[in-house]
Amino acid sequence: MEMQQLRYFLAVVKHGNFRRASEELNITQSTLSRSIKKLEESLGAQLLERGPKGVIATIFGETLQRHAQVVIQETYRASDEIRAIQGLVKGQVRIGITPNYGRYVIPNVLASIRAELPEIDVSVTSAFYDDLMARLRRAELDFVFGMFSLSPSEPDLSFKGLLLNYSYVYARRDHPLANKKKVTLDQLSQHSWVMPDDSGVEEFLKKYFHNNGHRMPRQVFKSNSLSFIREAIVSADLLSIIPEHFAQEDVDRGLIVRLDHDEIFFLAMSGLIHRTTGSRPPAANAIAKLFEQECGRIIANEGNKLDPTSLQTD
After folding, report:
1. I need a surface site. Which of 61, 73, 156, 286 has the fewest CB within 10 A?
2. Do 238 and 221 form a contact (C-beta atoms < 8 A)?
3. Is the pLDDT of residue 89 over 50?
4. DSSP H or E run through 238
5. CA separation for the pair 246, 257 (Å, rounded)
6. How many CB atoms lie within 10 A of CB 173?
7. Topology (CATH) of 3-74
8. What would the pLDDT profile of 37-71 be if each residue is shown by its tens digit?
9. What's the CATH code, domain 79-163+268-311?
């Protein structure tokens, strides 16, 4: 199995078409077909088959695709790292963040990167947890900074908690529940909600409502955009459970309020997530260290409430 064969195979899977793949690779279709055939012969399995929408991967091809993506990314990373050590190119680091950190933690970290690591180029991908983990596993990201459960159980990933993250229920300031002294769970269930399209938050709410003898809210909109969710809270009679730090600016401006129902809040960890396998470039380690320093500064300024060690008991 050769690197070139893997690149050719991934191009065909990407396009679902031999012609478009050969155009991207700048080779003839016959050369591409021979390469795929030799790869299949070396593995003793059919990797591709023609379907109604073009060429698709078989179950064997899907397995190879997952591993080939990681192999190719690791090869590129090794090449970049060697050139960086030689001083021939700048370091390149790819970071994933959950959307709630666009205005919190990230701005100060980016400022630190610009001041302390000016030779490093950084790309930042913002997405919800499930999407980021898929990209991290494919080695498309060097690491992720974001929210995860207090007890993550994903053996192929390593988690380092740096901050505690509290999410509460919010509504616009003139929502029917906004001025209630104490909001009941029954009242919450009777109103429409807009929710992050995140499996962890959704599962938390389902368990909370059902365990307390109530049905889920009558209507729930979902979105993978926190900006959309924020606008839906401000502009419509929709409730949502969102991170406290994300909501704080709109609370200070008087646009939204936190409902007086402290029993329902979502507690998660925020921190760094890496793959347990594969290399970790020095440039990525340097930037990860800046995330740790920024989270330490936030805890020092905002108090122990955000310190993950406060959860530890004797």
Report:
1. 156
2. yes
3. no
4. none
5. 13
6. 14
7. Arc Repressor Mutant, subunit A (1.10.10)
8. 888 888 888 888 887 778 888 888 888 888 887 77
9. 3.40.190.10
Taking only the tens place, the pLDDT of each residue in 105-141 is 999 999 999 888 888 889 999 988 889 999 999 888 9
Structure confidence at residue 90 as a pLDDT band (50, 70, 90): low
CATH number for the segment(s) 166-266: 3.40.190.290
- Residue 262 has a pLDDT of 61
**Cα separations in angstroms, 180 against 75, 194, 256:** 58, 20, 14
The sign of the dihedral angle between the CA atoms of 188, 195, 163, 134 is positive
Q: Are strands 54-57 and 48-51 parallel, antiparallel or unpaired?
A: antiparallel
Which residues are CB-neighbours of 27 under 8 A, at least 6 positions away? 8
> Is a pLDDT exceeding 50 seen at residue 314?
no
CA dist 290 and 111 (Å) reads: 10
Domain(s) labelled CATH 3.40.190.290 in the chain stretch across 166-266
Cα Rg of the chain, angstroms:
24
Yes or no: say if 302 and 244 are a contact pair by the CB < 8 Å rule: no
| Cα–Cα distance for residue pair 48/34, rounded to 1 Å | 13
Distance separating alpha carbons of residues 165 and 229, to the nearest angstrom:
18
pTM of the model: 0.66
3-class DSSP state of 82: helix
Tokens of 217: 């809210």
Residue pair 176/284 in contact by the 8 Å Cβ criterion:
no
Unique residue bearing structure tokens 């591409």: 32
Phi, psi (deg, nearest 5) at residue 303: 105, 170
CA distances from 225 to 33, 206, 212, 257, 288 (A): 41, 21, 29, 20, 25
CA 119-74-148 angle, to 5 degrees, is: 80
If we measure between CA atoms, which residue out of 274, 286, 308 comes closest to residue 144?
A: 274
